[in-house]
Specification:
The chain is an alpha+beta fold. The chain has helices spanning 60-78, 92-101; strands at 11-13, 115-125, 128-137, 140-151, 154-162. It is built from two helices and five strands, in the order βααββββ.
């Protein structure tokens, strides 16, 4: 996520626009094919790369907070959890925006349970972590990005971007 201006909202809902109709595509995504990788001798690794385990360089505490925040946001968007519970892991502006945009479910309406398909976590700075997730909300696949910052001994979600839309 890019640094946001001071006047912007803490939560950003992004409208997804697919490829123009009639555009040739391969599969579900309209991407250009990648150039083939340069040939290497069998068994040789690319220069400058090393094998890492999934947990290398990532603190278990920040991963747990990131996973919990992703689950909370997805459940709020699906309407299975009240937005007030996000206050455990998010700053007040994020909580207010999610409460305003959270999904409104009709009484007795069937709710499809949300799912988290995959998550990624990176640490661009010592007190900052950014996580991205691919989630399923109401039977549709969406992207989710959260920025977590460490302050006063706690990791808190300070910004959120998603393609999933709650009630405007």
């Amino acid at each position: 996520m890019r640094p946001r201006p001071a006047t912007s909202s803490a939560v950003r809902f992004i409208r997804y626009r697919g490829a123009p109709s009639g555009a040739p595509t391969r599969g579900a995504l309209a991407l250009r094919p990648a150039a083939p990788p340069p040939s290497r001798p069998p068994g040789a690794r690319p220069p400058g790369l090393r094998l890492v385990r999934p947990a290398d360089g990532v603190d278990a505490e920040v991963r747990a907070v990131a996973d919990a925040a992703v689950r909370l946001v997805v459940e709020i968007l699906a309407g299975t959890r009240p937005a007030a519970q996000l206050s455990l892991v998010a700053v007040p502006p994020v909580c207010r925006e999610m409460a305003r945009h959270g999904s409104a479910t009709r009484r007795g309406a069937r709710i499809v349970p949300p799912r988290v398909l995959s998550t990624r976590l990176q640490r661009p700075a010592a007190a900052v972590a950014e996580t991205t997730a691919v989630v399923v909300v109401a039977g549709r696949v969406h992207a989710l990005a959260l920025r977590l910052e460490h302050a006063r001994g706690r990791w808190r979600c300070t910004a959120l971007e998603t393609t999933a839309h709650g009630t405007p």
